[in-house]
Amino acid sequence: MILGIAVDAGKVIADDTQIDLGASPTWRDLENWLENLAGRFVIFSRLGREQRLYFDPTLELSCFYDPKTGLIGSSPFMALDRPIEPGRYIRVEDVMSGATNFSLGITGDRHLRLARPNHALTLDRYQQYRHWPRSDAPFTADVDIDTVASEIVTRLGATVGALAGSFRAAIPITGGYDSRALVASAKEHLEHVSAFYTHRINYLSSLDCLLAQKIGQKLGFEPDLIDGMKLTEKRDPSDAPSLEEKLFGLRTGGHTSTMGYRELAAHAFLPDAQISLRGNVMDMNRANQWKRQDAFRFLHLVRRLRLRAPEGIQPAVFWQREVMTWLDTLPPEARANAYDLSFLENILPNTMGAMLNGMPCHFTLNPFNDRYLISRSMGVTPARRRNGELNAAILRQSVPELAELPYNQEIKRDPEARRAAEALFAD
């Protein structure tokens, strides 16, 4: 049984889909199949007396569990039948203020845990077993970048096409790398997308709106413009949290910082749709966790996790045991990609995965949340990804005209661009 939305080789899995795993299926047979899925989902499975849960590659559909009670839920509040018992590591108030993130399966409660993506969770012993990546499938760093880009364009486009053909779909457009590569890969399927939108919540996002219009002109669509600044112009940032902010905190169970009041106000005016397709997982196409690193360093990994420690103790010392426990789950062949895998398993589940539960209008998912595409991206050396070569190859093979447009970071200090962005929202 699948909860959420999963896509198998360009087809959305319907409620009555039957999967043939052979006459005497094993857990490995099931894993071979589910490791090929894209989307945002949890899989409930049973073989004999054993029951397991499997998850999408980044735990976009959150799973919290209390081993003491056996309760499982999509947010901490749904998995607890008692008051929170604060743990020793991370405080909820620090996360809600944006000072740090939860990580490594730790939550604001002493006993409650967040499941690990790419692990199976057994429902009798509440133990987790890694099933991906496998030791017999190491990531290679000598792949042809144009071949990888071609595979991404073909497979990602098919996934977007399947989703847009099965649901009323909306796609947010920004002036960054990810949404541009997403819509470029899906160019053959954009006619089936119900709506495109972009919103302004600050100066930089006004440039997003400007570039979204230019991207739309190249691809034949007109994005809806939503002005979160105008919607909240009478509000002072020091005001008490709005009802929308409080509801967002309740939906996420305090597991991620509260989304800004301007963005939440804009979300109330999103176009009508069932699902929203985002490109956040595609950050790894730019080696976003490496930051001038070309080899693994423990201190850098801890720094990227934004882990805090009591005063007078270095975070790398305080967190060594917990971080090493996670690292030890990786097969030796995957250690070289520990930064990428930590992004998938420790960062995204505690930021994007938790935040998606708070989205008020749409079921939001990332079509690039796909182990095959993720593994192909990791096969490109960090230096080449960091230099933008993979994203450039994706655009070159799909919509070369988009490569001519600048990115928001390139024009953020351009007075002409600022005037043009402000003119979009002039009365």
Describe the structure.
- Helices cover 36% and strands 14% of the residues.
- It is of the alpha/beta class and 427 residues long.
- It has a six-stranded antiparallel beta sheet with strand order 2-1-3-4-8-9, sandwiched between helices. The protein has a five-stranded parallel beta sheet with strand order 12-11-10-13-14.
- Strand 11, helix 5 and strand 12 form a beta-alpha-beta unit.
- Helix 3 crosses helix 16 and helix 5 (203-219) crosses helix 18.
- It is globular, with a radius of gyration of 21 Å.
- The relative contact order is 0.17.
Features:
427 residues; alpha/beta; 6-stranded antiparallel beta sheet; 18 helices; globular
Give a brief outline of the structure.
By secondary structure, the protein is an alpha/beta fold.
What does the secondary structure layout of this molecule look like, with pairings?
Blueprint: E1 2-8, E2 11-12, H1 27-34, E3 37-47, E4 50-55, E5 64-66, E6 71-73, H2 92-96, E7 113-114, E8 119-122, E9 128-130, H3 145-166, E10 169-172, H4 178-185, E11 195-200, H5 203-219, E12 224-227, H6 228-231, H7 243-252, H8 261-267, E13 275-277, H9 298-304, H10 315-318, H11 320-327, H12 338-347, H13 352-356, E14 363-365, H14 371-378, H15 382-386, H16 389-398, H17 408-411, H18 415-424
Parallel strand pairs: 10-11, 10-13, 11-12, 13-14
Antiparallel strand pairs: 1-2, 1-3, 3-4, 4-8, 5-6, 5-7, 8-9
